[in-house]
Every structure is written in C-alpha cells, then in structure tokens.
Amino acid sequence: MALLAVDDVTVRFGGIVALSDLSFEVERGQICGLIGPNGAGKTTLFNCVSRVYQPTSGSIFFDGEDLLSVPAWRTAAKGIARTFQNLALFPTMTVAENVMVGAHAASRQNWLTAALRLRTHREDDQLRSQAWELLTYLGLQDIAFRPCAGLPFGTLKRVEIARALAARPRLLLLDEPASGLTHAEVAELADTLRAIRSDFDLTILLVEHHMQMVMGLSDNVVVLDFGKKIADGTPALVREDPAVVEAYLGSGVA
C-alpha cells in the first residue's frame, strides 16, 4: 500500500480550476518529485495534503486513512510535516527555539497542562535535547542560540528542514527547498535529503524547479501542467516524454 494516495483530486477557486482530477501515489521510502510550470498546481496539492485547503472533490489517503476526514490541526500528529516556499520561521526566536516549535506535534502537552505548567520542565528538557541532536546532525549547532534574523538564506532553509524533522514525520513535504541557493548549496542539499530519507526512514514529496536536482534525486516524478497530470514515472521516462519537454523542461534538457 502506498503511503500517500491522491485520488481524482479537484480544487476550484471560483471559476479557476487549480487541480483537475489529479491522481498519483507515493510509495513508502520514495523521494517523489512534483514538477511543473508556475501555476501548475503544485503548492495547491501541498496545501491539500497538509490540510490548508479542502479539495472540491476527490480523496487523499495517508497510510490507508482518509486524510480529508482528519481535522486539519491533527495532520502533523498523523506524521506529515512540511517546509514552505517562502520561509516561515520566527525571526526573533533562536534557531534552537524554532526547531523546538516543530516538536509540538510530538508533545504530550495539551492546553490545560501547558497553562498550569504541569510536567512541562522535563518535556522542555527533552525537546531541547532533541533539537540539539537535529541541529548537530544538520551542522547547525554553532548557531543554535542565534536569532534567525540575519542568517544566510541557505542556512535558514536548513533550519526549516530541522524544524520539520522535529515533528518526527513519516511524510516530509518540501516546497522548493533549493530556491535561492547557490550551485554548491543545491548539491549539498541533495546529499542532505538522501541522508535524511535513509536516517529518519522518511518518504519525501518534493516540489522543485531545479531540474538537475529533481532528476538526480527522485525515484519517481509527477508532472503537472495547468492543474492536470501530464506524466508520472521514473526520471528517465519523464524527461523523454514529449508532453513534458513541451510544457516544462524544454528541448535543451536531455
């Protein structure tokens, strides 16, 4: 059984069809690339999986469970985490504090125990320890106590990944993680994603415009154009598909 199954998902905003009868699956342990021109519907699909949007029709199953029947606020607790195309960090908080925020979904606290400060000190210590382990893993320990404001863009991208990992996800949604990175940083990011897929037993759904990275990293690639799927297969098959070449990759990609 696929970890994520998208079945005939359609999303309409008034007269605009952002996604049209979209279906694809992501197998456990895969890195699946989701590509297409700007406006193709990639982030809309991410917002459906992370329960920001409710599809007009269709179904989304996560590990066999109807994800659309799950309250949006429980999505992270189910094992889904994401990063954002535009950074969504807290600039005045430290790097470590931002990563600790990501662990909230894995916390045993609720509104009552948090308000009354019941058993919070021990759990706070655990969250700090987990955050430090992730920061060390991603080479961010030297800036753990610096505020995010003013840090290099590539560094902040890694902080977002650390925060997402703190939620202990099974499915990680990465929305253009290579955007704004240098060529060297892109290569380093690809190595990092391969490592975290293995070390954290993750399945990754990746939206990215950096074609060399997507094709070199993904086990499977889904291509969207104007909200419709036009190709779905291995990178080798997708890059040779005439519809993909015409819609997105261009004749210069071989």
TrEMBL record:
GO terms for cellular component: plasma membrane. GO terms for molecular function: ATP binding; ATP hydrolysis activity. PROSITE patterns: ABC_TRANSPORTER_2 (PS50893). InterPro entries: AAA+_ATPase (IPR003593), ABC_AA/LPS_Transport (IPR051120), ABC_transporter-like_ATP-bd (IPR003439), BCA_ABC_TP_C (IPR032823), P-loop_NTPase (IPR027417). SMART domains: AAA. It comes from the Bacteria. Keywords: ATP-binding, Nucleotide-binding, Transport. Residues 4-251 form the ABC transporter domain. This is ATP-binding cassette domain-containing protein.
